[in-house]
Amino acid sequence: MLTIRNIRKEYRHPNGETIVAAAVREFGAAQGEQIVLAGPSGSGKTTLLHLIAGFTEPTAGEILWDGERIDAWAGRRRDTWRGGNVGYIFQNFNLLPGLDVRENVMVAAALGNRKFGSEERRRISDLLARVGLGDRAGHKPSQLSMGEQQRVAVVRALINTPRLILADEPTASLDRDNADIVLGLLQTLCREQGSILILATHDHEVRARFPRVHEMTRPGRIPA
Amino acid sequence: MIHLLIAWRNLEAKPLQNLLTVAVVATSLAMTVVVMLLAASIHYGLVRATEPFDLIVGAKGSPNQLVLNTVFLQDVPIGNIDYAIAGELAQNPLVASAVAVGFGDNYRGYRMVGTEAALFAHTVASGRPPWLQVADGRPFQNPFEAVLGAKAARETGLKPGDSFVSSHGVVAGGEIHGDKKYTVVGILKPVDGPYDRAILTSLQSIWQAHSHDSAPRPETSAPSGVQDADEDHDHDHDHGTTVILVKPKGYAEAMRLYQQFQKERRVQMVFPSQVVVNLFAALGEGQKVLNIIAYAVFAMALLLVSFSVYWSALSRARDRAVLRAVGASQGDIFRIILAEGVLIVWSGAVIGWLAGHGVFAVLAGFLQQKTGILFASPFTASEAYTMAGALGIGLLAAVIPAWFTARSGIATDLG
Q1: How distant is the Cα of A204 from the closest Cα of chain B, in angstroms?
Q2: A87 and A195 in contact (C-beta within 8 Å)?
Q3: What is the ipTM of this complex?
Q4: Could you tell me which residues are beta bridge partners of residue B134?
Q5: CB pairs < 8 Å spanning A and B
Q6: pLDDT tens string A171-193
Q7: Does domain A2-202+209-222 match CATH 3.40.50.300?
C-alpha cells in the first residue's frame, strides 16, 4: 500500500527562484491497482515517480509504504527496498548496451533480488518467451527494434515480482502497434503478479485504458 | 559474479582504450621486472662463477682485470709471474693447494687454459665433488693433450680423438702455432660457468708451443698484456705462468695468507668474490637509477589507470543510474568500478610480469652465450614485494575512481 501526503520537490535556480518540480497533496495506491499519472510536460510526473522510487528525496511531505516512511530511510535501506519492491520502466528503455537481453534481465534479478539461481534463470526464459523474445536472449539491445527493447525493459522491471511498477512514458518512443503490445503486456503481467502499476503519460489513448487517473498540474515557480 | 560480468562488459565496450591502458601497465612493470631480474641474476651469476676461486695470485696490476681474465675468461692477462711462486705457495702451511694456470692462446676464440692435473681434483668446497669432471674421455696426461669445456666442445664440434692447432692471443685471428697439434682426450661436464668455454691443457703444452715460435707476431695478434708477457717467452716462458689458484686450509688461514701477500712485491693476491662484490656495488648505483625510473613509469601508469577508469565511469553515468534504478546499491556500483580498475591493473601486472620474464630470458640467453656466466632467474623477495606492491597500489588506483563515482545521485545521472 502506497500513500503520499503533501509532498513537494523543489530546486533552487541560480537566479534565486525556487522551482517546484512536483507537488502532490494526497495520493494512494492499493495492491493490484493500475493508475495513470496524467498531465502536461513539466507537471512533475517523472519527478513524482523518482520520489516514489527513492531516486531523490522530497523537500517536504511524506511517502509511506505499508505505513512506513520510506523517504526518511537511509540510502542503503532504500536501495534494498527498491531492489525487492520496485520495477522501473523508462521512456527510452535504458537497457545496458554492453549486455545482451538475458544479461540485462539477469542484472536486475541478481542486484535487485540478491539471488540468482536456476529458478531465476527459468523465470527469465519464461518471461522473455511470454513477451515474444525467447529467441532473442543472446542479442544486444542495438540489434533489437525499439518495441522489442521496451519489452525487454518490461521483463527487467517484472523479473523480481515487485509489488510496485513505475513506468515513465513507456510507450512514448513507440509506434501505435508496439505501444499497444507493450502496454497490454505490462498491464496483464502486473495484474497476474498483483503489482501496483503507476504509469506516467500524456497520451490520451493510453490513459483511456486505465481505470484510474491522477491528474498533475504544473506546480510553478516561487520568486526569490 | 554479476559485478565482474558488468565490469567485463564495460571494458569490452571500449577495447582499444582499455587494451592501451593494460599495455602501459604491462610495459612499465615489465621494465621493472627486467631490471630486477638482470640485477639479481648478474649478481648470482658473478658470485657463483667465483665460487671455485678462493684466492688468486697474479701479476701486479688491476684486481678487476685479474679476476675478469682468470674467473670469467674475459679481458687480457696482466702479465706473467714466476712459476716458482706456485711451488712456494704449495709449501706454505696455510695453503691446501696451489694450482698454476696460464693463458695466452686460443682456438677459434675459445681460450686455451694451461694448467696442472691437480685442477681436476680442485673442489669448490670440501666434501663436494671436483669442480671440473670429465664426462667423456679422460684428463690430459701428456703435452698437447686437451680437455674441452662442454660448450667449447659443442660449439667447435671437437670430440675425443680429434686434433686442432691453437693460435696466439686470447681472441681468434692470431698467429697459428701450426707446428704443434693438440689432440682432444676428454670433454668436461657442464659447470654452467665461463669454464664451459675453456680448453684445458697442460702448462707444458703452452710453454712448448711458444718456445718454437720464431715468426714475428702481428701487433693485433694479442692484446697488449699478453703481448708484453710473451715478449719474454724465449727467456722465461717455461718458468712463467699467468695466475695461481690458491685454496687456503680455512677462512682464518685465508685471511693470514692475504695479510702476508700485502707485503709481497712480485705479485698480488685477491679474493675474487670481494672484487666481484665491489664491482657489483659500483654497478648497483646504476641499477638504483634504473629502478627509480621503472617505478616512476609504473606510478604514472597507475595514475593513467585511475583517470581512465574514472573518465570511463563518468561517461557511463546513465548506465550507472539505471543499475541503481534496477536495484544496485552504491556498494554494488563501487564494486563494479573497482572490478574494472582491478581487471585492468592486474591483467597488466600479470602480462608485464610474464613479459618481463620473457625479455629477461632472451637477454639472459644472449649474455650467457656471450660470457658463459649462468644467468638464472631466481625469484627474489624484491620481485615478490614489487608484484604485491603493484597489485596493492593497483587496487588503490581503482578504489579512488570507484569511491567518487559510486556516490553520485540516481536522479542527477538519469538527467
Answers
A1: 26
A2: yes
A3: 0.89
A4: B188
A5: 82
A6: 888 888 888 888 998 999 999 99
A7: yes
